[in-house]
Every structure is written in C-alpha cells, then in structure tokens.
Amino acid sequence: MLTIGELASYAGVTVRAVRHYHAKGLLPEPERDNSGYRRYGAGAVVELIRIRTLAEAGVPLARVGELLRADEEEFAAAIAAVDRRLRAEIRERQRHRERIARLASGDGLVLPPEVVEFLDHLRASGVDERIVRVERDGWIPLVARSPERVPEWMARKREQLADPHLIAFHRILGQALDRADDDPSLVELADELAACLTRMADERGEAYVDDTDIEPPFAELMDTLAFDAAPPARRLIELLEQRGWTGWTRLERVRPKRR
C-alpha cells in the first residue's frame, strides 16, 4: 500500500495535485488506516496517470471525469478527438514558431520572396538603406493584412522597377533623411519629388502613382510607421502638398497650396 507521497511520485504529479483530484471527485479518496494515514493501492497509480495524461492534453477536468466513467468505445472516440485537436495545435504552434523566426531573421523570412526581390532591387539601384527599411516595414503589415493581393501589387512594382522616375523618387527620399525641417535644400528636394510624381502621373496616369488601393485608415497607419521611422518625411509631405501631391502610402494629386 502507498502513502499519498508515494502515489504522487509514482504517477509523476505533486501531492497537491492528488488532493486537487480528490476534491474534484476524479480520484477516490481512501479511508484512513488505524495509524491515521490514507493508503493507496496499485490501481490508484494507474488511475492517477490516466487523469494526469488527460489533463496535460488539455482535457477539462469536468470532461476527464466523464471519460473515466465512459465505456471503451466512447473513451477511444474521445481520445481520437483529443489527438486531432493536439495535432491541430501542434501545426498552429509550428506556424507561430515560423513567424517568430521570420521576425528575427531578416527580410527573407518575414516577407514573400517577390517583396524581398523588390527591396534588393532598390538597394542595387542606389536607394538609401534607410528608405529601403521604411519600405520594408510598410510591407510587413501590408502583407500580413492582405497576403492574397501581393501578386497583384508586385506585378505593378516589377513594372515600376524599370521606371527611372521611380528610382529617382526613392533616391531623393534618401537624401531628404539627412535634412532638418528648416533646411532650404529640403524645399529643393520637394520640388524634385513633385516633378518626379508629376512626370509619372502625366506619362502613365495617376493610378500608376497610387497603386496600392488600400482603405484610408490603414494608409494612415502605414504613414505613421513611415513618419516614425523617418521623421523628415512628415515635413517633406507638407512641402509636397504645396506642390500638388499629398499622402505617403497613398499618393494623390491635389490642388497645390499657396507657398
């Protein structure tokens, strides 16, 4: 016969767990012997292991009690259902692990290959790495929100990669990052950016410039990410609005404000 401590040790649980299972009515509590101790037989070890296994598999204790009282067929069906749930949880946790690894392992794991290729092309074209990072950080929530639209967006981006105006636009943005808000050269860069945008819109249409087609609230969130990562961008957008363009994620033509 076993003491409660010995029972717990054989079953791989704590004494506190045994008492908890007693309180829940899952494990019968034996009467005390003449010495005042509760003694358990070998069958209690088997029963306790069954309880522990089901509980560790995530089966609610109320359901554990039902299963312990079930016939063999019902028990087998319930265990099969638990197994299916555990397999689904394992797959989901594996997906979580992959996502965590992507966040920690650079562009190639956090973004689709075609987006990474686009970012690498910007780097190879001489675009400032800070602008590439802003572009990358914008793509992360965009891809997470609408992964099904990535092929559509990247088809347009591949077309734009051959456009010298687009590359010039990104290069000018990189130059702007080194300017203070009151730097006169920032005004000159805004003129260059506005000229690039106007040429692209005139030659290819305004839809060519604003090609993401995402709702305004999400575009505002994306803008905030960009402005936090590259503070001069906010002042640059103010200057661009005076020159007939507004927005960052969604560039739109507007009536120029008086300077």
Describe the SSE topology.
Blueprint: H1 4-11, H2 15-23, H3 42-56, H4 61-69, H5 72-104, H6 107-110, H7 113-124, H8 129-145, H9 150-161, H10 164-176, H11 184-204, H12 206-209, H13 216-229, H14 232-241, E1 245-246, E2 252-253
Antiparallel strand pairs: 1-2
Helix pairs in contact: 1-3, 3-4, 7-8, 7-9, 8-13, 10-11, 11-14
If you had to describe this structure to a student in words, what would you say it looks like?
With 259 residues, the protein is mainly α. The protein has three domains: 1-68, Multidrug-efflux Transporter Regulator, Chain: A, Domain 2 (Orthogonal Bundle); 70-105; 109-253, no CATH class. The chain has helices at 4-11, 15-23, 42-56, 61-69, 72-104, 107-110, 113-124, 129-145, 150-161, 164-176, 184-204, 206-209, 216-229, 232-241, and strands at residues 245-246, 252-253. A two-stranded antiparallel sheet has the order 1-2. A hairpin with a 5-residue loop joins strand 1 (245-246) and strand 2 (252-253). Helix 7 runs antiparallel to helix 8 (129-145).
Key terms:
259 residues; mainly alpha; elongated; single chain; Multidrug-efflux Transporter Regulator, Chain: A, Domain 2; two-stranded antiparallel ribbon
Strands, count: 2
Please state the average pLDDT score.
82
Structural class: mainly alpha
Taking the sheet with the most strands, its summary is: 2 strands, antiparallel
Query: What portion of residues is helical?
Result: 55-70%
Q: Which spans of ≥5 residues are poorly predicted at pLDDT below 50? A: none
Measured between the Cα atoms of the first and last residue, the distance is 94 Å
